[in-house]
Amino acid sequence: MSGLRSFVARRLLLGVAQTVAVVLLVFALTEALPGDAAVALAGDQPDPARIAAIREAMHLDRPAHERMADWATGLFQGDLGTSLASGRPVGQYIADGFGPTLLLATLTVALLVPIGFGLGVLAARREGRLTDRLISSVTLAVYAVPEFALGVLLVTVLALRLGWLPPTAVGYGTDLLGHPSALVLPVLVLLARPVCSLSRLVRAGMIDALASPYVAQARRYGISGTRIRCAHALPNALAPAVQQLARTVDWLLCGVIVVEALYVIPGLGTVLLNAVAERDVPVVQGLAVVFGVLTVVLNLAADLVAHRLAPRTGVAA
Fold it and tell me: Any alpha helices (H) in 254-280, and if so which ranges?
């Protein structure tokens, strides 16, 4: 227990340090972005006096370190700032886009876990046989296809040629649950590559675990194959798979920009694209901080779960 407490304490301190680094890096990178938000907001024919007034009203004329201090203070108080383009709170933008993104992530993970783990365990049990070679070949081939190419292919075949599914979510707004057919294609695209990587990780972990000395000793004791696979081999195979699953969830929640843009889904990726196009720096900063904190938290949780499942292996993250 003392070792576990020490591990948790170290990981928490590292998570806090990473979060602070994310906040500083996000502000520095957004400050380095080209262009001027005041010029963008002034219109097609900007007047110098109008630009100066906009900069003063939005505190863009203040030194960077003062704006950094105000922004960081607001973050610690739960205030992500105000949009330069609309005057709305950045938190409202994130809340509006989080629903569709969370829905896509939830559906993808709900299918990913049983399919990915099931294929990995099946391939490991049939190591070297036709089933194993077939699963390995198909997963490798699918993983090699870029998301945008797979998305365009599915739209062309299933939506435009066969007419089975709508090509995009245009007209549905954020009410995607009321139109489940609009979710099929984006979920398929989001599911394709994570299933491949997860199943291959589980397969490799199961094969290594089944070849280990303690599994051989369990077989000599007469323990059944099912119990060996489930109680001895699978927990050690799950440790790297859990970390991969955490990275996948992080990727899904942090705005899958390509998929949301392709299928016109109003999630966090779309909010980020619009903010960058409008040079709306507070929205970009707020989203980047949220994405960074999600990454730190999810990886921390994955490390703790992996350490609990297989403390002998350590943590790879």
Answer: 257-262, 268-277
Residue 74, amino acid: G
The full length of the chain comes to 317
The Cβ of residue 183 has, within 10 Å, a number of other Cβ atoms equal to 22
Give the tens place of pLDDT for each residue, 28-45: 877 776 666 666 666 666
Query: What is the distance, to the nearest Å, from the Cα of residue 131 to the centroid of all Cα atoms in its chain?
Result: 31
What is the distance between the alpha carbons of residues 53 and 47, in angstroms, rounded to a whole number?
A: 10
CA 259 to chain centroid, in Å, comes to: 12
pLDDT at 315: 46
Q: Provide the greatest CA pair distance for the chain.
A: 86
Q: Which two tokens stand for residue 304?
A: 């703790």
Spatial CB neighbours of 12, under 8 Å, sequence gap ≥ 6: 300
Joined tokens for residue 85: 């383009």
**What is the pTM assigned to this prediction?**
0.77
Which residue type, as a one-letter code, is found at position 205? G
- Tell me 172's DSSP state: T
Q: Round to whole Å and give the CA distance between 181 and 158.
A: 12
Phi and psi at 82, nearest 5°, equal -125, 140
Buried/exposed 21-38: b ≥16 CB within 10 Å, e otherwise: ebbeebbeeeeeeeeebb
Asked if 7 and 292 touch (Cβ cutoff 8 Å), the reply is no
